[in-house]
Design goal:
CATH superfamily of the largest domain: P-loop containing nucleotide triphosphate hydrolases
CATH class of the largest domain: Alpha Beta
Low-confidence stretches: none
Helix content: 25-40%
Oligomer: single chain
Mean pLDDT: 90
Strand order of the largest sheet: 6-7-8-3-9-10-12-11
Amino acid sequence: MNAIVELSGAHVVHRARSGGLFTRDRVYALTGADLAVAPGETVGVVGESGCGKSTLAKVLVGIQRPTGGTVSFRGRDLWSMPPAERRTTLGTGTGMVFQDPSTALNRRLPVRRILRDPLDVHRHGTTAEREDRVRELMGLVGLPRALASALPGQLSGGQRQRVAIARALALDPELVVADEPTSALDVSVRAQILNLLLDLRERLGLALVFVSHDIQTVRRMSDRVITMYLGRIVEESPATEVTDRARHPYTRALFSATPGLLRPVEPIPLTGPVPSATRPPSGCPFRTRCWKADGRCASEMPEFSAASAPGHRFRCHHPVQEAESTRDLVRQNHPREPS
């Protein structure tokens, strides 16, 4: 099946001011990303803060232009299109739900106007049809019509995120990217928003890219899970494989940190901080924290290798074996002292 959006060798490098007034460091926010999102599938993206998850999300919806590589939408290079065509393609084909609805919504506009804006910008239907669509969108995300005249500041956090989701759906996009959509919400409403996204995905046939720190939620919601480290995709796995059969040591360590109540297990410890994105390590970026690292890891970036399951690939010179349990890896990483 043809991909809705596809990245090929996508790089994003920012310039950040360092010590001197005229000195700027290169920040390697995304490096060599290859990713395709098929119609109707949910791709989860996990990794520690600063690993490039949000940059990847912005590249997918055209908010961030890559420094190198290509972004294709339905087989056409987005950044080779004339600007007007690109705006139309992205505006009608993709939607994005941001982390904090308090800052993502214009606090001076009522809900009705916020939801109408995409329709007005892209001249979608007549005035009456736009008003009908606003009412339809509010019903779709479970918002009472009485809130149409309310300002964002008069809404709860969950209601504001429902408005943000409705706005992302206004033009019937094929792809919605949700960047940490529940992290700014109270625990009591997070499950409601997650269930809403799952319901909308099923009802509307959406492709969904779900970025989150909550890796167990990502596993439950996704068809496929992408693990990122220091701007690189280091593993891509079917969600059913990612907990117990992930091959990259970093993925295993991430998922061991929240093993669940039914199978308590000591997490795999990672020593040391994440390296700076301005001066990433040579070779494999994870080698400075990996218990398997050797000289080859320091000198050579691993290429992708295929695992036994279809659609499962990883970048590692010394991958975890599929039969190895998390307990085995904990013992490797932190062997017990002899008694």
